[in-house]
Amino acid sequence: MSTDKPALRVGMVGYAFMGAMHSHAWRTAPRFFDLPLHPELAVLAGRDGRAVKAAAGKMGWADTEVDWRALVDRDDVDLIDICTPGDTHAEIAIAALEAGKHVLCEKPLANSVEEAERMAAAAQAAAAKGVFAMCGFSYRRTPALALARRLVGQGRIGTIRHIRAQYLQDWLSDETAPMTWRLDRSRSGSGALGDIGAHSIDAAQYVSGLRVTGVSGLLTTFVNERPLGGTLVGLGGQGASDGGTGTVTVDDAAVFSARFDSGAIGVFEATRFALGRKNSMRLEVNGSLGSLAFDFENMNSLEFYDGTQPAETSGFSTINVTEPVHPYTGNWWPAGHGLGYEHGFTHQVVDLVQAIADGVAPSPSFDEALGVQKVLHAIERSAANDSGWQHV
Amino acid sequence: MSTDKPALRVGMVGYAFMGAMHSHAWRTAPRFFDLPLHPELAVLAGRDGRAVKAAAGKMGWADTEVDWRALVDRDDVDLIDICTPGDTHAEIAIAALEAGKHVLCEKPLANSVEEAERMAAAAQAAAAKGVFAMCGFSYRRTPALALARRLVGQGRIGTIRHIRAQYLQDWLSDETAPMTWRLDRSRSGSGALGDIGAHSIDAAQYVSGLRVTGVSGLLTTFVNERPLGGTLVGLGGQGASDGGTGTVTVDDAAVFSARFDSGAIGVFEATRFALGRKNSMRLEVNGSLGSLAFDFENMNSLEFYDGTQPAETSGFSTINVTEPVHPYTGNWWPAGHGLGYEHGFTHQVVDLVQAIADGVAPSPSFDEALGVQKVLHAIERSAANDSGWQHV
Amino acid sequence: MSTDKPALRVGMVGYAFMGAMHSHAWRTAPRFFDLPLHPELAVLAGRDGRAVKAAAGKMGWADTEVDWRALVDRDDVDLIDICTPGDTHAEIAIAALEAGKHVLCEKPLANSVEEAERMAAAAQAAAAKGVFAMCGFSYRRTPALALARRLVGQGRIGTIRHIRAQYLQDWLSDETAPMTWRLDRSRSGSGALGDIGAHSIDAAQYVSGLRVTGVSGLLTTFVNERPLGGTLVGLGGQGASDGGTGTVTVDDAAVFSARFDSGAIGVFEATRFALGRKNSMRLEVNGSLGSLAFDFENMNSLEFYDGTQPAETSGFSTINVTEPVHPYTGNWWPAGHGLGYEHGFTHQVVDLVQAIADGVAPSPSFDEALGVQKVLHAIERSAANDSGWQHV
Amino acid sequence: MSTDKPALRVGMVGYAFMGAMHSHAWRTAPRFFDLPLHPELAVLAGRDGRAVKAAAGKMGWADTEVDWRALVDRDDVDLIDICTPGDTHAEIAIAALEAGKHVLCEKPLANSVEEAERMAAAAQAAAAKGVFAMCGFSYRRTPALALARRLVGQGRIGTIRHIRAQYLQDWLSDETAPMTWRLDRSRSGSGALGDIGAHSIDAAQYVSGLRVTGVSGLLTTFVNERPLGGTLVGLGGQGASDGGTGTVTVDDAAVFSARFDSGAIGVFEATRFALGRKNSMRLEVNGSLGSLAFDFENMNSLEFYDGTQPAETSGFSTINVTEPVHPYTGNWWPAGHGLGYEHGFTHQVVDLVQAIADGVAPSPSFDEALGVQKVLHAIERSAANDSGWQHV
């Protein structure tokens, strides 16, 4: 792409599902948005030299490294994009920030509150030097959820009373689905709770503008042993086992109730056992003036109930969130021509590049992501204590 | 109606919303179903003699009483149908059963576990003499929910992992909606929890065939004072106040998580503050082989996901539950011609009359309703104890 | 029902599906609506004396006749309700009107324009003497469609450009479904066109307030021979054949385009071969200010798009048409507690009784129904002439 | 992108909405699919040198031309992608094919049958030399519609009886929306009929495998004069006028009925005046064994009714068409993570590149597109002749 804009040279660690997604976002963002800096897909890092080279060719990265430390040390990289499992986030992110690189880190921020706190401290120290960090809660950039937040901000919902959030998947419903790193606590930190429940918590707080102050939680594991050696399909699907089983050490499902700082209450559920629900990330907000409902399986729509309309014609309106007036959508196709899952990641890159160019901290910051981590931790504490209430 | 069938002479106490509904059911059931006994709308009881006479004329009752005790004492009444607020259920039901009358009692069975236990004991004693009691959890007789239970019974859902139930109404969202007996703990026993949450608990147990063994609950009241003197519209709607306010002494909303005897987990929510949701009684069940989803706002449909179908064509099927093969519907209209809210009550009468004629105990029995009452009580205990787990 | 209101003594001819429905309506209307006259289910007429007596007992009629002429001659009958196949409508209705009886006649009004014209003339003559006639296009009294008309009348839709109407059933999809009178042109007049297409035409004109001025039509018959002797289920379903086949002499499906007097255009489809659609009577109206969409399979909902709302929040609103402000619904249950197919018939009786008491002509009049008949006839002419345009 | 695959050097004419879309497809296809040839975005052609250079930089094209003839003459281009208005298609496509370049031409193929016939002849001549042409009916590559065709091919639908297709947009509902080239017959050939109705015809034939043999049509123009000088938004939206009006010389809406070669019948509607419908491209197919329904506003879903299931559980299933077994989707994200409008164009490029590499003619061929053109022409003839039947 010919351009005279200053470059933002990106180095990325990891190139699985999330790496492919982030690569697409970096490539695509400047084609549809007028960015102040031009992202360059400079270096891709991964431990297997041969595989990382192949991935770089496929995804469009100019160079490769086999050690993320070497990537962090390079002078010709401005930003480190971390797409690895959660147990590596803290070490890479802190090193990158200390090396003066901006950081985009996938969620959940870390596998423990302690790690997240160190990352947030590193981000604050870096911000003082104009180096910024962002956590990849990409659902915020789904146009319908960004519109939801806007409507709350406009006062269209009034005083919020209820938030109900469900993140329903089903890829573990089959008891013969194979073991993956996502089911190993030492790698992933937690199961459905941290992987998808974290999205629900962030989305609930983002859309409502409220903060969770206390929780009561219940975690459960339905299938304790799974076959080893399966080939992953998508998020973990079925595959042939080559013998033996591995022990699932994370939660298969999490439910929790919450109080928010305003007095609103919430009820949350995250599971990989909701047979038939593929990626049903649902959020509903009920206030004194209006209500909102969203389901990612219809990601281009937002349901809005305007309680100030007369009863004769009031009802939930299905807003097709593809109009030029809606968040992000004006840069894409005409109204009614829907977007897909990946667009949230492209929008994330757009906002991050803009923030860096403007010298302002992007959001969600590591502090915000630490806040989510604390909620996750409180849920785990509650679950371990007979669901007793835990302040966050 | 000319008939040579033996009569079942019904006496009813109460003639508000539920009384009008039950009257319709008693009048209509023999027109569409071949009942072994012929229900006669014999006597309507209410404290205001003039009003009860007017109601009897409107609703089709042959005679009236101003004292329910006089009704219970009459020799020409075979069954007492109790449509009064919950604080009167125990006294009337026990007296009626002791007087040898069958009893149909609206839900919730009582305002306390202690009352419910006495009622269940009276029902057991009466059953030994061929006198039967039933509690009016009418949603069980919605064809879609009866079909849901049938599919679970057929093994189509497999091992159940998740139950999520929401009962969402919005008639208290408006802070100026007037005070009613339903918001006075001394009359109603509890708020959203007992009024609508009880339906969700019964429906969850009925459809799944499982029993709740423990809960963690959270109750909240959003609006503590409401204007007095309003004229009720429907369930309590808006009306002009003639001065002063009354204190709301019940929960506006209840959320709770549950474990079932099989290891399944559940998450429940009952509220009158879900703006835009009018009578959204939702139930979703996820199992190892299939899933079910229902929303009373589309009461003629049941969503069914058959996980045994190949992935290429699997999806939630919207079953239009109006075919002759579906529960109850063959006695009504051709397929696709939907039923309404009241049909569940007509079906309830049909099953009750059949059970009495057969000399078998109808369901839900007072024992089953006592079980629901114990769950409600455990939720209240948990809510009063920082959401700590309570065994049922 | 004890009452001091003047009686309206009803005699009904026919007691199949529609007869059961009308009986329910006559019985139920006075229980929920404050009628100026009290309907009495006086006499039921049918050719088979034994069967008509059984039906009368089941449905609540006080007396029976085996000859509709005898019914028409009785002095103790004020209104004749005609629930027979279309080939008998003209003779019965004209005789009844001439005998000074009010008439409620099921749709389609007649099997030919000529019959319909004679009926309309008889109705006009009778009206001059205070005797009234109404045709049973009951869908008009579905609350959601009555609300649709109200919104058009309020100008909420603006200038109407498009009407699209589909009436989709599937009970003939199975080629082995048996022959019925509905497939015999000499009895039914036409097939899908007159049976269900007539409803769509009436609903389109009723909701829009416009009149069809010209049409182009296409009729087709997919299955020409069907087994004889089947037992009908519902509208005609499957049954065991006892040998031989009958020839289908009506259309299985009809499609037609239309122009309305305002310049709006319409596209219609009526079929009994839309596999999976049970009673999907859909109507969509697009205007310059708003749009409406309805599907009888979700009969308690109306979709309304308010084009005057800002683009940011505009979308089709799903109005749950069960509020007290909505047509008819305030007399039934609280908001969100849906109605069923039969309520339209009860509302029809309510409006008819009110009109008779007020001495004003009820709607739809025989003239209006004649208008529908003329549209049906123009479609048949067009279909017989290579779909060439036919003025109505 | 580093690759050792042979290059396919692409030259594109036009860079408005469709040009941006095609550029994205060319850039993205090799990142997610394993293509046998590597597409290079070699040259972009447009009349305004400055604008085309800016567009090339933004969209990723290496070089530019200001004359499409110069582009066609270049030796370093293998394929010409035509994204200009319909009046230029024939000239460019024929020249390109004669110059030995493969051609991808946007739909509708041409503005007249005569042009389309010449193009089809040129394509046949070129094919003999291994040079291929494809018409851009991109909706075929929407996974849900590709799945629909697959199910028809598997016999899951049985004998098709009904096809109903609607393409509903609303961007002209506002009478003050400005004049655009799309409303000028000399540029666009026709209005809603050719622009969006053509998609419906192609999709109907593609999914069903049937061919339209005759039609009856009705065209109408609701707004005859529109303000000049507006700035287009998306497909033509609102803009400020700088004086005067232009005459709309195309249809605003088209409705037509059709017969297919199998005896099935169809009803079609295409309009830009369906207020509230943004891009509602709907297709429903009813057969003897199953039915299918699709709406592009929920493009990741296909509704499938399997009539071979028992009545108890049969219903329309909402297939979330994002599973690895579904067409195209396995190359993207995990199940449930939906795709957007642009993916159909990427898939189109994938299939085109594969066909060229394999030396087989891609589909839809110019012959197929000529077939659509003939249907369009027959509709126009019918509309001009009182909707009389026209054979195709």
Q: Write down the secondary-structure element order of chain A.
A: EHEHEHEHEHEHEHHEEEEEEEEEHHE
Low-confidence stretches of chain A: 232-241
| Strand residues, percent of chain A | 15-25%
Number of strands of chain A: 17
Question: Percent range for helical residues of chain A?
Answer: 25-40%
Q: Biggest interface and which pair forms it?
A: A-D, 47 and 48 residues
Strands side by side in the biggest sheet of chain A: 16-15-14-13-7-12-11-8-17
- When the domains of chain A are counted, the total is 2
Quick check: average pLDDT of chain A? 95
CATH topology-level name of the largest domain in chain A: Dihydrodipicolinate Reductase, domain 2
Mind summarizing the main beta sheet of chain A?
A: 9 strands, mixed
Distance between the termini of chain A: 47 Å
Please identify which CATH superfamily of the largest domain in chain A we are dealing with: Dihydrodipicolinate Reductase, domain 2
| Anisotropy-based shape of chain A | globular
CATH class of the largest domain in chain A: Alpha Beta
Based on the coordinates given, report the CATH architecture of the largest domain in chain A.
2-Layer Sandwich
**Broad structural category of chain A:** alpha/beta
Rg of chain A from C-alpha positions? 21 Å
Work out the helix count of chain A.
Answer: 10
Q: Report the oligomer.
A: homotetramer
GO molecular function (chains A, B, C, D): nucleotide binding; oxidoreductase activity
Pfam families (chains A, B, C, D): GFO_IDH_MocA, GFO_IDH_MocA_C3
Domain GFO/IDH/MocA-like oxidoreductase (chains A, B, C, D): 147-292
Protein name (chains A, B, C, D): Gfo/Idh/MocA family oxidoreductase
